[in-house]
Amino acid sequence: MPATPPTTLADDCAAEELARESSRVRAQARIQARKDEEARIDAAGGNEWYYLQDSEQLGPLSLDGMRDKISDLTVEPPVHLVWTEGMDGWKPFYDVKKLGEAVAAAAAAQKAVAESEESADAEKVRQQAAAAAAVAAAAKAEAAAAVAAARRAELTMWAQDANDARAAAAVKARIKAAEDAEQRVAAEARAAENAAIFATAEAKAAEQTRQSLAARAIAKEEEEARMKAVVEAKLLAAEQARASAEARADEEKKRRIAAETRATLEANLRAAAEAKAAAESSAAAVAVARAQAGDHARSQAEETASLRAAESAKAAERARAAETAKANAEAEK
Fold this sequence. Notes:
The protein has about 325 residues and is mainly alpha-helical. It has helices spanning about 10-45, 65-70, 95-160, 165-330, and strands at about 50-55, 55-60, 80-85, 90. Among the domains are: about 20-95, no CATH class; about 115-215.
């Protein structure tokens, strides 16, 4: 049996072109299927959207409510699979044009607004802390000036009338009042400092909250992008595997057809050889039969000739006997 002929470069190129064309056709079919689904959703005209959370169907929500639910970073676990009238089944929200584009735009706008508001709040808190610190410093300076003035007044009054007890008591009272004022101002300064520290802590907490929300938003976007990439990679791998399987099946079919063709040709050749051998055998048998028939005919001819010669000899013998008898009869007369 001859060996299987190797495939040519043209055959390989044709198979690759067929696989690429098959992949392109399937990709166009998916795009058209999405467009048809969007058309069915628009034609249905419904405004009831459902979603799955922990394997539980929830809803219905309006289109805006569904977008808000998807954009809400506090929802745990995040919304992923959605459905509405007109769809073939549950699908990731980013594969639905009405939700994916709007949610992405809303998330970007919300992120920008949140960053702007948080930056403004942090700046306001910092300004308030600076103003409180300035007020505390001014109050502290005013208290120090009041204490110095009271002490100067005390020295002056003692110099004027050291024996005047009432003046001394008044000086002591003013000194005590100045000290109380200094303590009050110091307490206010401490309160202002505490307020500044608290404001700073609040600003830091707000910044941490903003960073946490931003990190969650980024993580959610990355997770959605990763899931979308995984789905697309699986679809692409499935398409490639299907195209490869189809190409292998076509190649196997071609090889099977070629093998069957070769087997049929070899069977025909064997049948022709057997027929030729049978014909040659028949011709040989006919030749033998003819030779045997010729030998038999020659044998019969020789036997016939021998019989005829024997009959001729007998006739001659009878003729001689008759002549002899005739001669004897004439002699007796």
